[in-house]
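Researcher: We're teaching a course module on how sequence relates to structure. For the next exercise, students receive a sequence and then see the predicted structure as C-alpha cells, so they can try to spot secondary structure elements on their own. Here is the exercise chain.
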Amino acid sequence: MNQYIIDTKYAVKKLIKTIYKEEKELDSLTTKFNELKKVFDHLFWDYSTADMHEDFNDLQVQHKFIQMAKFHEENDLKGKKAELDKLSHSIITKEHSMNSLSMSLLQIAKQGISTVHGSPNNCPTGRNIGSESLRNVIWQGRNQSIHYEEGNPNQKVKDCFINLTNDFGTDFDLSLDYTVNKAKKIVDLLNWKNYKNYKTDLKSLIG
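Model: And here is the predicted structure for the students to work with:
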C-alpha cells in the first residue's frame, strides 16, 4: 500500500467520522424544524384568517384585534418563529460544515493522485461512476468544491457534472446554481461512508 495512504489514514478517518456525525445532527435538526413548522403554519393560519367582517363596527374590530393579540401571545407565535429562524440558521451552518469537511476529504484524495502521478492523465481511471471514472470524479469534484464560490466552473468540471446529472439526477446539476458546493454529494456518491471504502478506491488509483 502506498505510503501516502498510510500517512493520511488518521486525518481521513477523522474526516469521515465527523462528516457523518454532522449528517446525523443535520437530520435531527431538519426533523425538528419540519415538526415545528407544521405547528407554526397551522397556528399562523388560524391567527391570520381569524374572522373579520367588513361590516364590523369600531368596537367589534377593536375586540377582534384584542382576541387576535391574545391568541398570538397564548400560542407564542413570536417565540415559535424565533425558534424556526434559529433552526434554519443551524441547518445552513451544518450543511456548510459537511461540505467543507467533504471538500477536505476530496482534497486529500486528489493530492494523493498528484503526489504519486503528477498529472491525472498518468493515473489509472479506477472504477466506473456511472459514465464517469473514479479518477475524474475525485479530480473534478475537488475542483468544483474548491472554486464553487466563484460561480464559474471550468469546462472539465461542467462536463463531469453533466455526466453525473445524466446518470444520477439533479443533485449534480450545476446549472441550477453554480455557487452551490457539491462536495458532500460527491462523497456520498463515492460511498465513502467508512475508511475501508475510501482506502479501496485510493489504492486502485495510487497503489
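Model: If you want an answer key for the exercise: The radius of gyration is 25 Å. The mean pLDDT is 86.
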